[in-house]
Each structure stands twice: as C-alpha cells, then as structure tokens.
Design brief:
Two copies of one chain form a homodimer. The first copy, chain A, is of the alpha/beta class. The first copy, chain A, has one domain: TIM Barrel (Alpha-Beta Barrel). Chain A is about 40% helix and about 15% strand. Chain A has twelve helices and ten strands. In chain A, the strands form two sheets. In chain A, strands 1-2-3-4-5-8-9-10 form an eight-stranded parallel beta barrel, surrounded by five helices. In chain A, a hairpin with a 2-residue loop joins strand 6 and strand 7. In chain A, helix 2 packs parallel to helix 4 and helix 10 packs parallel to helix 12. Chain A is globular. The two termini of chain A are about 20 Å apart. The model of chain A has no long low-confidence stretch (mean pLDDT about 95). At the A-B interface, helix 3, helix 4, helix 5, helix 7 and strand 6 of A face helix 3, helix 4, helix 5, helix 7 and strand 6 of B. Chains A, B: This is Orotidine 5'-phosphate decarboxylase. Chains A, B: It catalyses: orotidine 5'-phosphate + H(+) = UMP + CO2. Chains A, B: GO terms for molecular function: orotidine-5'-phosphate decarboxylase activity. Chains A, B: It is an enzyme of class 4 (lyase).
Chain lengths: ~280, ~280
Amino acid sequence: MTYSELSDQIFQKQSYLCVGLDTDPRKLPSHLRTETDPVFTFNKAIIDATADLAVAYKPNIAFYEAQGPAGWESLQKTLDYIPENCFTIADAKRGDIGNTSDLYARTFFDLTAAGLSFDSVTVAPYMGSDSVLPFLAYDGKWVILLALTSNPGSADFQRQQLQRGPLGHQALFEAVIRTAQTWATPDQLMFVVGATQTNELEQIRKLAPDNFLLVPGVGAQGGSLDDVSRLGLTKSGGLLVNASRSILYASSGTDFAERAKDEAKQLQQEMAQHLSSIR
Amino acid sequence: MTYSELSDQIFQKQSYLCVGLDTDPRKLPSHLRTETDPVFTFNKAIIDATADLAVAYKPNIAFYEAQGPAGWESLQKTLDYIPENCFTIADAKRGDIGNTSDLYARTFFDLTAAGLSFDSVTVAPYMGSDSVLPFLAYDGKWVILLALTSNPGSADFQRQQLQRGPLGHQALFEAVIRTAQTWATPDQLMFVVGATQTNELEQIRKLAPDNFLLVPGVGAQGGSLDDVSRLGLTKSGGLLVNASRSILYASSGTDFAERAKDEAKQLQQEMAQHLSSIR
C-alpha cells in the first residue's frame, strides 16, 4: 500500500486505528478453545468486527512464534484474511547484519519464502544502516523503525543525550529519526513513537514532518488519544494509533467480537472528530 | 549450562568455537536437496563433524524463519540433536515491551511453548531494561546482549558518544555494557562484540572483566582470531568465537561435512594454542 493510498483510507474510513492482533491463546474466550485453530478463529472474528473501523492490523509476531510452527500457520491464515484495503504490519522488531536482515525481509515480504507478504515490518535501529536497508530494497514495502518506545525502558538508552554535534545536543532517538531519513523517503519509512511519550511528540513531528508515526500505548498502557492526535496528525493523516488488549479482550465471553467492535467504534469516532479538525 | 560448566567445556575441548548454523537452503550441496528436510540433514552432518571441536552452536533464527513453519520444525530437530555438553544460542536479536519479551523468552526457553529450550538468546538493547529482564527471569538461561556488532552500521548509533556523565565520556555501546551489568551477573549475561572491533575489545574486556563475550565476524567477515583471543580471553575462557559460513560452506560437494570438520579443526587448534598461554 502506498503513502497516498494509506492516507486515502484514513479519510475514507475516518479512522487511523490500527488493531494489534496480539492474540494470546491463554486469554481466549473459553468457548473457542475447542476450535482446531482457536487463534485464527478469534482473529477472524476480530477482523470481521473491526474491518470497517480500522485502517491497519498489526500482529505482534512474538504471540505467534511462542506457539511454534502452528503459530506461524495461524499467522499466515490471519494475514490472508485481512482485507486488501487494510495496511498490514508485522510487529517483529527485527534487525541483524545485512545478509541476515535480508532473510528477515524475505520472511515478512516475500510470499514465496514463509507464505507471508506484509506491507511493513517493525525494525530495531541499534545495528544501523546495513541492518535496515535490506528491508527497504523491497519496492512498495515499508520499514517502521523504533524511535521512542512506550515502555519505561525507553529511558535507558533512547533518551540518552549524545555529545553536541553539528545539530546541537540531541537524544539518541532524535539521532535515529534524523539518520534514518537519509536512508528512505516517507513513502517507505515510519517511526514508532509510544503514546506515553507525548512530551516529545511535538518535537518528533517537527523532525519528521511527513513520516507516518505508528503509535502504540493507547489503552492498556495509558497513553492519551487526544494528546497524540493533537500533536501528531498531519494533512495526510500521518498517524496509525494502535490498540491491542483494550479491543481484543474487551470481553472474555461469547460477545467478545461485539464488545471489540464497540471499543474500536469508540476510538474511531474520537478519531473522526480529530480528523475533522485538520481538513 | 552454568558459567563454570561452560568454562570447563572450553578447557576440556581446548576450544571456544561456536558454530553458527546459518543454514541457507539455497546454498546446500545439491545432493541434499531431495531429502525430506535438507536443512536438518545438513545440520546433523555438520554437528556430527564438529561436536568434538565446538563448545557452542548458534542457529541464526532468520534462516529458519524464512522457511515458514517447516523452518521452525528444522530448528526444533536441530536443537534436539545438539549434544548436551554443547551450549546453545538462539541468535534471534529479539526485544520488545515487557509482556511481549516475556513471550519471546517463552519461545526460546520454555520447551512447552514452541518446542525449544535454548541455553541463551541474543537480545537487542534499544528498548532498555524491561525488554531484557523477562529473559533473565528464566533461571539458568542466558541473555547475550548486542553491544558492539561486527557490521559497518555499528558506527551509526553504537559508537555515538554520549554526553559527559558521572563516568566521563562514553559511547552508547559502553553505556549498554555498564547498564546491563546492573541487571544481571556474568552467570546470565554475555555481550556480543564483533571480531572486526578489535580496537575496542581491550576496553570492553576492562568494562566487563568476567562476562563471556560472543564474538562473531571471524572468517567471512574478516575478523582476526589472534587479536580477539589475545584481547578477550580470561582465566575462565570468557570467549565464544563464532564461525558460520567459513565452516558450513567450506565445500559444496559431497565432502561438505569433512571439509567443515577441517575448518573447525584448524580454528580449534589455534584456540588450543591461545588457551595454553593463559593457564
């Protein structure tokens, strides 16, 4: 999906909601546990319930990997089931030396490798340019680079101030955002910025005025949709705000999909309000 | 495997060789391609040929992941086949927010999750403490944290100098090494230091005098075993030096395992010389 197609979807659906398919078999409603593939059955119901309200789906790969080979099959089926007009994110946080990152890129982008063809993958920046470039070699595919994450540990290294350089003092996450923009245009590069990091969001938006930001941390992690929208929205939308647990586990009963839809609907309606204020 | 057991293995085998099982189906000897599971057949032959010469095996997970569910089955079989007295490393470079890192830890450490129980996993430090601690919660299992990697991109962020703090100026990779030592003892924590980074190895050994260092980059990537050994060895051994391509693909013919053994033997003999100089 291209930048302008994603932007169009946002204004058509009046939503920049990304549903995080962090499906934990231990948390599934009990009536699903006898299914052949309970994870896929659950995801299918969640997708059916939310596809009109969300512009993106983001399975976190850890949840599938932890199920062994069967988990990868659930992931393949889930990806196949996501409607064409939704942007897909493999939240894998991969990154390795060049020839190995090339294999991770094949895993998530090349249908003939592992049976998966996501629009994008999340990548960790620590290993630098040659760990990221192999993902960008796939035309039309996106890298979503970790910048300032939503978790407490983001303070340990991401917020460390670097020595004064040509650009003055900057934190590591700012150097990541600046440097990565020399590797790719906003047509292939997004950044992860946690919803809990609203103090820095304004400044990040200045550093990356045209890049989409993937913002996790609304809901269970406590980030504010209002703040994120006010500081992050652009004329193109420019945001994908992820909610996972608050949607997936809104109910543990047979009404789980209906309740997931209610949660998604509430977020979408708030998003529609914010979108109306920028165009 | 404990610190002292690993150290004992090194002196018994007179080797600190780690064989990187970066098995690429596209590079296998042609006579293996008709096997049901050519990757496992290849790995089995490599392990048989090198098990007396190596103290550790390190499958890079990207190579298996890129084969989809079948790749994870090859990985399970490979891990099961590695002898008990060898240390096993899931080279996965994972790291995510706490509840997700917990799932990655389950994947690689908990046999009942994905059918895998490695001794250790490589972890990326960018997301900080709560992305690493869930791995350390597994008693007797190890985190091998990326510090200064072997690839050119290591200059982009790892070598960035931080502002002067209580410890004076330091590069990001030094901050990673110092900070991580507040999370775990050398009984559970190793660092990845590329063999191409010998200028910094002496200083890293001072920062982490007792931690094992996992050193990739000898062989195809051009690092020097002599330099690494001279600067990195400790009284406990303290090093695992990885070679992958130079061993796996020493020959593309039916003699591949024999040639792999020759390559491993040559490295082991050099290592024995270095070990004799420290005890």
